[in-house]
Each structure stands twice: as structure tokens, then as C-alpha cells.
Amino acid sequence: MYTSGTTGRPKGARMTYQMAVYNAVHCAMTMSITPASKNIVFLPTFHTGGLNVYANPIFHSGGTNVVLREFDPAYFLELLSDKELCITHMFGVPTNFLMMANEPGFDDADLSHIECLGIGGAAAPLALIELFAKKDIKLQQGWGMTETGPLGLMLSPDKALSKIGSSGLPPMYVHLKICDNQDVEVPFGQDGELLIKGPTVLPGYWNREAEHDDFFTSDGWFRTGDVARQDEDGYYYIVDRTKDMYISGGENVYPAEIENVIYQLDGILENAVIGVADEKWGEVGRACVVLKPGANLDENAVIEHCDSQLARFKVPKQVRFVEELPHNATGKVLKHEIPRD
């Protein structure tokens, strides 16, 4: 199965039956999947988000999958609201939920019958989680990769608000640790690369056997390329992708933090922050912003808001308003396709 390719060219992940079975067990344990579960599938099934969260686990438990040919936010909201159809489970990326929340019927839609709304694939804006929480809908954040089966972390519904921003805890058969660039575990609260080990992790990449040691440690831990930290209760927070990080004036800057702040502004449909070359600072942030119809925001409003919420070196120096951001088939933003000039 090919990876999403959000940071470059997709890689072929070698998948095993063991990975599929353990992932189904993990999903059943953390998402309350039973033979009565009804899951709506709209992410493409050639990606792990469509096939393995939660289509295969639903089949494994004897439940029902409702498969859409494409994602249409209005029709999607209609299906979710249908009490007779009674969808209980679904998984989407933040873009899907942002689009659904902007539908005219969202405020009045009754989604109380849904048991699990999973969100992942990219950093979920805190403002989006809070928006759904106002309707008493708990978006369950999770984390995973094609290479990890995919489920590596899941936040339980009872912690969806008290641990907002967290991707939760690992399921039973997953082992995680956060390390520095010398593969030494860092203390609680410090950022480092997330490493994973267990029966859901791929054995390697197709036709890239010679590069195995680039992706795995000598004792079998897979390097995810994600920066994470743990709080004092052991809950994991995904900070950002290491490849999305840029260095401004010698300081590491993680775009996801800035994007979360920009999402606090009314009128923001979507945004992505990238690092661009700068003669003085090496790199500075550029915010690429898609506005909701009728929104009236300018560059100064975005920068001033960021300046009130962030350290000075994190504030983007440029804001560009665009009609849309590049996405892959699952709806993830492809930052490497955003122009840097």
C-alpha cells in the first residue's frame, strides 16, 4: 500500500496479514466496534485511511460499511444525520470536518447517534474540535501511518475535551518512545522523534531494502518522522512532521502550532504554513490562507493575531490568500506542492 506522499514521493509499504489482524483488534478495542456497527467510508480505499480505518476492522467484526464514491460535504452531512441509516462510525481528515462544519445544515444536524467520529491524518485544529464539542460531538483524535497498520494512538471519548490536542494513548500491542537524534529517550514534556515497535509495523518498503537502516533502528524501532511529546499522564501530543519544520534565526518552528492559532480567526476555511527562504533569518513563515465565502480578513489581521498568541520568531512574516490548497486523494494538504517563490 502506498503512503500519502504529503512530504514527497509516495513509498510502497509492504503490508502483512498480521498487521491487518492486529489493527482490527486495536480498532475494536478503542472504537467500540461490534457486529452492529455501521461505518461510512469516503476516503479512498487505496489509502490506509479508507481501507484500515475503519473498513477492514468493521468487516473483521461483522459490521456494515457504507461506501461513497466521493466526498460531498452536503450529502455526507445528510447521511450522517439519517436516523434510519444510523451510521455509528466514521474516520476523516481535518479537511473533511472543516468542509462539513461549513454546510448550512450543520448547526441544526442531530448527530447524537454516532458513537465514534475519528479524526487524523494531519494535525486537527483545536478550534475545529471545540466547534464540534459545542454540539456535544467528541471528535476522537488519533495518530497512525500507513507504515504502522495504521493505528498507533487513539484518544478515548471521555478524554476528548480534557486532553484536547492529544492523540491519546497507544493500544495494547503498540510500543512507543520519544527520542532525540541520538535515539536516547527524552524526559516527559520534551519534544523528540516518535519511534514505534510492534506487530502492526511494516517489515520494510517495497524495492527499498537497501535503505532499511534509514527507517529502522538496529533493535527494530521504526522512525516515524513525527515530532511528539508526552504529558505527565503519559498522553501523547503530535507536534508536527520533522520535514515540515523550518529554522528561523536558529529556532525550530513547527507550522502546526501556527496553523492552530490562525484557525482561531473567524473566516478561516483552511490554512497551511511553510518555511520560505529569507536573507536575514534563513527561513521565515509564510501562511497560505483559504477564506470562507464572504470573509473579510487581510494580511495585517492574520499577522497581528499571531503576534498576540505566539513568540515573535514563530509569527509568519508573509500571508498569501489563495483559492485552494493542494490536497491528495484523502484530503491531506500537500505542503511540498505549495509554491515557495
Helix-strand string:
HEHEHEHEHEEEEHEEEEHEEHE
Number of domains: 2
How many strand units? 15
CATH level-four homologous superfamily name of the largest domain: ANL, N-terminal domain
Report the end-to-end length measured between terminal Cα atoms.
33 Å
Main pleated-sheet profile: 6 strands, mixed
CATH architecture of the largest domain: 3-Layer(aba) Sandwich
Task: Please estimate the helix content.
Answer: 10-25%
If helices are DSSP runs of H or I spanning 4 or more residues, what is the number of helices?
8
Net shape: globular
Assess the beta-strand content as a share of residues.
Answer: 15-25%
CATH class of the largest domain: Alpha Beta
Query: In what order do the strands lie side by side in the largest sheet?
Result: 2-1-3-4-5-6
Topology record:
Blueprint: H1 17-31, E1 38-41, H2 48-61, E2 64-67, H3 73-81, E3 89-92, H4 94-101, E4 116-119, H5 126-133, E5 139-144, E6 151-154, E7 175-179, E8 192-197, H6 212-215, E9 222-230, E10 236-241, E11 246-248, E12 251-253, H7 255-262, E13 268-278, E14 282-291, H8 299-309, E15 318-321
Helix pairs in contact: 1-2
